[in-house]
Amino acid sequence: MELRSSGLQRLVREVAKFGAVGGAGVLVNLGVFNLVRHVSDLPVVRASVIATVVAIAFNYVGFRYWTYRDREKSGRTRELTLFLLFSAIGLVIENGVLYLATYGFGWDSPLQSNIFKFVGIGVATLFRFWSYRTWVFRAMPAREALAGAESILAQQPRKPASEPRQRVP
Questions:
Q1: Less Cβ crowding at N or C end of the chain, within 10 Å?
Q2: Cα(121)–Cα(29) distance, rounded to whole angstroms?
Q3: pTM of the predicted model, to two decimals?
Q4: Whole-angstrom Cα distance, residue 43 to residue 45?
Q5: Cα(75)–Cα(64) distance, rounded to whole angstroms?
């Protein structure tokens, strides 16, 4: 039972850290979105794409160096490539919701844009959590962890088995 609760505790911590970084990323995303909309004449979805790209960069730093800092660190090029690939899919999901609301239904007031931007972020976040933990920031394989532990133990001097044990009263 302990192993299950220990695994569950790790998952809860991971979700909390992912949520903290993601929550800050949402604030960055919405802040940049509204700033770009306020200072430029860009269409709503283009402003959203810019904001999403900024948030993706912010989130990578938070995920790599805080949420998943204990995960496998070899193959950073592979990790970054997969992160960008899955982030791009999340960008399409997120901004697809906003595009549909804006151009499909004509809901394009600032309040409506922010609501559907937020809804799009929520839907894309479910995909991102699954893909990042499954493919990008993978847990170190058990074989490698075991081999590392065995190599540490092999370096420690061993006592011969024939030595009598000393008892301490």
A1: C
A2: 9
A3: 0.75
A4: 6
A5: 13
